[in-house]
């Protein structure tokens, strides 16, 4: 668990530093989105559409993945120690 939290902390710290640097030179998120042809509202709509597509597909896939994982977990040989 510690390596995972450590990695998240590093990503957050570096993101904060880069964001502060971009803010210092007057670059905003809207400027970056506009450079790729998006507005914040369009990005939000795309994120909602992705969520609406991804969640049902994740649930559907889990109906196969979880039982297969459970069978493999139950039938693998015990570990020593």
Descriptive tags:
81 residues, mainly alpha, 3 helices, flat
Compile the SSE list and pairings.
Elements: H1 2-24, H2 29-35, H3 40-75
Written account of the structure:
The chain is mainly α and 81 residues long. Helix content is 81%, strand content 0%. The protein is built from three helices and no strands. It is flat, with a radius of gyration of 21 Å. It starts with a helix and ends in a 6-residue tail after the last helix. The model has no long low-confidence stretch (mean pLDDT 94).
The biggest beta sheet is recorded as: none
Count of alpha and pi helical runs = 3
Mean pLDDT: 94
Binned, the helix content reads over 70%
Query: Separation of termini?
Result: 21 Å
Number of strands: 0
- Described by its quaternary structure, the protein is single chain
Low-confidence stretches: none
The dominant shape is: flat
Task: Output the helix-strand order.
Answer: HHH
Short précis:
The chain has 81 residues and is an all-alpha fold. Helix content is 81%, strand content 0%.
